[in-house]
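Project standup — Tuesday

K.O.: blocked on the structure for the chain from last sprint. Re-posting the sequence here as requested.
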Amino acid sequence: MGEPPSVTDSAAAPVPAPQPEPSVPVASPAKTGWAFTDPGCRTDVRVGALLVLIAVFLWLWFGPTTSARIYLAGCPFLLWGIPWQAFQARAGRPGYPWKLGLAMATLGGAMWPDLRYREVPGGPIEVQIIAPLLLAAGLWIILWWPVAVLGRGGNTRP
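H.V.: unblocked you, prediction finished:
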């Protein structure tokens, strides 16, 4: 009777040759498409801003009553979404829409002189309400931007 080969004997267990791995395509990052806010922006902020922009820029097509209702539907999303986004930005969440707020405030301010009118010649000058509404929404977003930036360790881009 022979002795079994020792465990340390290299001839007892042949080592399999390394097999080439099947070519697995490397997943590329998914393209998000076009968005008017940065990735990380809250959905309620995006919906609110979109409703405000729809109400302002389709004012003449929808009429003042429908546009005012659309604006009032979008305002609550901005009123609670922007502060939440600002506080979450302090905790590290990216995507505070400061560029959107800056654009809305700038365009609302720039539209103001262009949307002045008189009902009757020589009457008082009035302003179509859409310019102040866009300006107000933009200023609300900009107002919360310092809250989003403070406490982030010096990072000035939320």
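K.O.: great, moving the ticket to review. The chain has a mean pLDDT of 84. Residues 43-149 form one domain.
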